[in-house]
Write a structure and sequence with these properties.
The complex is a heterodimer. Chain A is mainly alpha-helical. Chain A has helices at 25-51, 56-60, 105-112, 116-146, 153-161, 172-182, 189-212, 216-224, 229-240, 242-257, 261-266, 275-285, 290-324; strands at 62-73, 80-91. Chain A has a domain at 105-324: MetI-like fold (Orthogonal Bundle), CATH 1.10.3720.10. A two-stranded antiparallel ribbon of chain B has the order 1-2. The chains are: A mainly alpha, B mainly alpha.
């Protein structure tokens, strides 16, 4: 039922019956349950950020010697004297609390030794270029399939939609062989083009939805003004596809930014390594040092989360557009 | 105008970039994968391959897999079989545990409860985080050492006292004592892998279903209320049948996603053999043992399975005449 200010909440609109409680224990229970889920969702991230700022002693706990003054009673005289003694004390790990010493050096270490800055930049280059290519290719193809007139356009669309179900694993050996014969392994291109190819189907799917909403009269008007198909595409359609740019962009961004399999296989040199592989690598380097690992995880996660804070509705919408129209 | 719009060269030029990418990097490689899977192909450099019929497929399901360079056996079990079973278990867990939770959340949140957007945004958040990060984060959560938060929590509550011996006795088949190595035992590793998957993707399915429920026409719901339907009945007889197409998409994503799953297992465990999936086995065969033919065979099996499951699920969700509209 729609929220309606005129009807008091405790009266059922349909039956007119007065409900006995305005305050419902059941609703409270639901909220408690939901809040528990919120906690489960947030806690691992909170924990990640806190251990990224702790040193190993705090994370693992440690034992230390502490000087303690102890009373010693002399057996003969009964005299009490204070004697300084060393005692071994077990300090428990600080699992859930905030760090006691904020260990910012973990971050500098992850950036310097872990090279996270470089990987971050690589991820950015690969992702931005892949998004651009996906966008251009899918807009052009969508234009051809929705606004140009030819026989096989429905079939062609179905053909592209095959891409939605094909797992990326399927292509890995042949693409690897192809890249290695072309000498393209360990370059940005080794990731950019495969990423664009695998994002294409979704790009076309999303942009078909958007392009279908642009009125055909506009094409006609532009045509009468002397535009050819290219003119219509560049001057009329492209500027009206701005919302689609955001949707396709967000979807492709997340796919590329987080991709691991291709990034591990096609790029082995650190120079072009992307963020997910970098994080993975760091674990090999620091098996026992949790702080820098946590810092690397946080560095890789924060940008997306910050973007999400500002764009949550947009981001959610692009996921919905991707699935519902399929 | 029509003549301009159906000018063949322009159509071709507009399609060209997409076609090059799509055919060059998706379609042709799949054909090549199928081709490789029938060949003995053990080195990228050599161009000679011998045609071996179905030998790769047979070897995959046999007891031994062999490294191409050393000739040594590295797996002594029915591994591809195990991997497939594992991925099917994951798929079943996703469909029968993850999706009902997502549906329950979506149904609840779509009823205009206070804080709806807040809950929605928080539950969806893990979807955006890289699976690599999630795998590594959960690896730390499961850590059997002092720092692992799960075991620390169990210890603090005193649960480990009886839980661990119970697992050793009833769950694990090996003689080793279970002391919290969640990813170290075959019997617990798959569940340990499922929990982060659940954690990450519940929000995704919830969002899709929520969007679907929001698309249910308000008049339909009002009519049902006027006819005296209670909330549960509205959910069951109106909303769920109405969002069937979205449920179908969710089931397809959950099943094919489980079949394809690689990132999480690969990053969550140092030793993936405890919860081997087709894709992790494929990775090993390809890049640790140089068995490109065998790896391609797995790729082909995966593609075929993905298509078959997508088809079966679509058939299962087909309307049987009882349309709601």
């Amino acid at each position: 039922m729609k929220k309606n200010g005129l009807v008091p909440k405790q009266v059922d609109i349909v039956t007119g019956e007065k409900k006995r409680f305005a305050f419902k224990p059941k609703a409270l229970l639901v909220h408690l349950l939901l809040l528990a889920l919120v906690f489960i969702n947030i806690f691992p991230l909170y924990w990640m950020v806190t251990f990224s700022l702790k040193n190993n002693d705090e994370i693992l706990g440690y034992s230390t010697k502490v000087k303690v003054m102890e009373e010693v009673v002399d057996a003969e005289t009964g005299e009490v004297t204070m004697v300084e003694k060393e005692k071994r004390v077990q300090v428990l790990p600080n699992h859930v609390g905030l760090p006691k010493h904020w260990e910012w050096s973990n971050y500098t270490e992850a950036m310097k030794t872990g090279n996270m800055g470089q990987y971050f930049l690589n991820s950015l280059v690969v992702t931005v270029l892949a998004i651009t290519i996906t966008m251009i290719a899918s807009f052009m193809a969508t234009y051809a399939m929705t606004r140009l007139v030819w026989k096989g356009r429905k079939t062609m669309n179905k053909f592209f939609m095959l891409g939605l179900t094909i797992p990326i694993h399927a292509a890995i050996v042949p693409v690897y062989v192809m890249l290695s014969r072309l000498g393209l392994l360990n370059t940005y291109s080794a990731l950019i083009f495969p990423y664009a190819a695998f994002a294409l189907a979704m790009g076309i799917l999303i942009s078909s939805g958007f392009m279908g909403e642009i009125p055909y009269d506009l094409d006609e008007a532009a045509f009468l003004d002397g535009c050819g198909v290219w003119g219509i595409f560049v001057r009329v359609i492209a500027p009206l596809m701005m919302p689609a740019i955001a949707t396709v962009g967000i979807y492709t961004f997340l796919q590329c930014w987080n991709e691991l399999l291709f990034a591990t296989v096609f790029v082995s040199s650190g120079k072009y390594r992307t963020l997910p592989v970098g994080v993975q690598q760091l674990f090999g380097q620091y098996t026992t040092r949790w702080g820098p690992i946590g810092a690397a995880l946080t560095i890789a996660t924060l940008p997306t989360l910050i973007a999400y804070v500002f764009l949550s509705k947009r981001i959610q919408d692009s996921f919905i557009a991707g699935a519902v129209k399929g | 105008m029509k003549r301009t719009l159906s000018y063949k060269l322009n159509i071709f030029l507009f399609l060209l970039p997409a076609l090059i990418l799509f055919v060059g990097i998706l379609i042709a490689p799949i054909v090549m994968s199928a081709y490789y899977s029938f060949h003995d192909f053990n080195s990228i450099a050599s161009k000679s391959m011998s045609f071996v019929w179905l030998d790769n497929y047979k070897e995959l399901f046999s007891r031994t897999l062999v490294n191409a360079e050393t000739g040594k056996t590295f797996v002594n079990d029915k591994f591809m079989g195990d991997a497939l079973v594992n991925s099917l278990i994951l798929a079943a867990l996703s469909v029968f545990i993850q999706l009902p939770i997502a549906l329950a959340l979506a149904l609840k949140l779509s009823k205009h409860i206070t804080g709806e957007r807040f809950y929605l945004s928080i539950f969806f958040m893990p979807v955006l985080i890289s699976t690599v990060i999630i795998g590594r984060l959960w690896m730390n959560i499961y850590d059997p050492g002092k720092a692992g938060i799960l075991n620390a929590g169990l210890k603090a509550l005193g649960i480990d006292q009886w839980l661990f011996p119970w697992i050793t006795k009833h769950i694990t088949s090996s003689k080793l004592q279970f002391t919290g190595q969640w990813t170290g035992f075959k019997e617990t590793a798959l569940i340990a892998a499922f929990i982060p998957i659940l954690w990450q993707y519940v929000g995704y399915h919830m969002l899709l279903m929520y969007a679907g429920i929001r698309g249910v026409p308000a008049e339909l719901l009002e009519a049902a209320k006027l006819d005296g339907c209670r909330d549960g009945q509205v959910n069951r007889y109106i909303i769920i049948p109405y969002i069937k197409p979205i449920l179908k998409v969710s089931v397809i994503f959950a099943v094919t996603g489980s079949l394809k799953s690689f990132d999480l297992i690969y990053t969550l465990m140092k030793d993936t053999t405890k919860a081997e999936l087709p894709s992790t086995l494929m990775y090993k065969l390809l890049f640790l043992h140089n068995r490109y033919g065998l790896g391609s065979a797995i790729a082909v099996i995966l593609i075929v399975l993905c298509f078959i499951f997508a088809l079966l699920i679509s058939l299962a969700f087909r309307d049987r005449g009882e349309k709601v509209s």
